[in-house]
Write a structure and sequence with these properties.
The chain is α/β, with parallel strands linked by helices. The protein has helices at 20-31, 43-55, 70-83, 107-136, 165-185, 212-220, 233-240; strands spanning 11-15, 35-40, 59-64, 89-92, 147-152, 190-197, 251-254. A seven-stranded parallel β-sheet has the order 3-2-1-4-5-6-7, sandwiched between helices. Strand 5 (147-152), helix 5 and strand 6 (190-197) form a beta-alpha-beta unit. It is globular. The chain starts with 10 loop residues before the first strand and ends in a 7-residue tail after the last strand.
């Protein structure tokens, strides 16, 4: 006996799709049958990703998006719905970080992190939710009443980590934001959940794991390893599925036992 989750007929918007986890999420949802809207600032990379997805028969579209600019958010969401259709799934993935002690954090550095990770995530979710709510209230057309919002938080939002204090703060805000969204929007059939990944090997940090500091960090992890982007696939698809309607406001750690240690 097998169990299959089919996202055919659904439209998924993925922010930060041009690299790292966002790219993996786009492939994963496309292979599950969803039409994926690839959003981010690096449009040429989005176009390359679109071609990769189309090469195996997936349905992908690229749209420029700067999550720190509310006008850009509104424009990108409107463009996506005009070109592809009503957004059923949002993967709120854009994120940035810096490595510095709290005593060294400047205003610009603080704003850089919070404007993307917290403010940007909020206004993307708000703009998508407005349209989901309109459909739920019968004020806008759409084949799917309700929706799925998956905020990508971090294990750093659940416990403090050295030298990335502001990042920890920004992701902790995303965790609480997820719960508030779940409480306000859940009655309209919109579920909002958060995935909190631990250390994942992506192009941004890949070089670090072969350094002395990186090897030392790995040696301190419960199973002496870092994760791969594909390790989040099953959880992501499950949270996007119609069958996950009873999962709302969940904050799910995907950290290989790091927070349990």
């Amino acid at each position: 006996m097998s169990y299959n989750i089919d996202l055919s007929g659904r439209v998924a918007l993925i922010t930060g799709a041009s690299s790292g986890l966002g790219t993996q999420f786009a492939h994963t949802l496309a292979k599950a049958g969803a039409a994926v809207v690839l959003a981010g600032r690096r449009v040429e990379r989005l176009k390359t990703l679109r071609s990769e997805i189309e090469a195996y028969g997936g349905d992908a579209h690229a749209v420029g998006l700067d999550v720190t600019d509310v006008a850009s958010i509104k424009s990108a969401v409107a463009h996506a719905e005009t070109e592809v259709g009503a957004i059923d799934i949002l993967i709120n993935n854009s994120g940035v970080s810096t490595t510095e002690r709290l005593i060294d954090v400047s205003e610009d550095s603080y704003d850089f992190i919070f404007n993307t990770n917290t403010r940007g995530a909020f206004f993307v979710a708000q703009e998508v939710a407005k349209r989901m709510l309109a459909r739920a209230n019968g004020a806008a057309p759409g084949t799917f009443t309700g929706g799925r919002i998956v905020n990508i938080a971090s294990a750093a939002g659940l416990r403090t980590m050295p030298q990335i204090g502001v990042y920890c703060m920004s992701k902790a805000a995303v965790v609480h934001m997820t719960k508030v969204m779940a409480a306000e929007w859940g009655r309209f059939g919109i579920t909002t959940n958060a995935i909190c990944p631990g250390y994942i090997d992506t192009e941004i940090n890949h070089h670090h794991w072969n350094t002395e500091a990186g090897k030392k960090l790995i040696s301190m992890l419960p199973r002496k390893r870092v994760g791969q982007p594909k390790d989040l696939d099953a959880m992501l698809v499950s949270l996007c599925a119609a069958q996950s309607d009873f999962i709302n406001g969940a904050i799910i750690s995907a950290d290989d036992g790091m927070l349990a240690a």
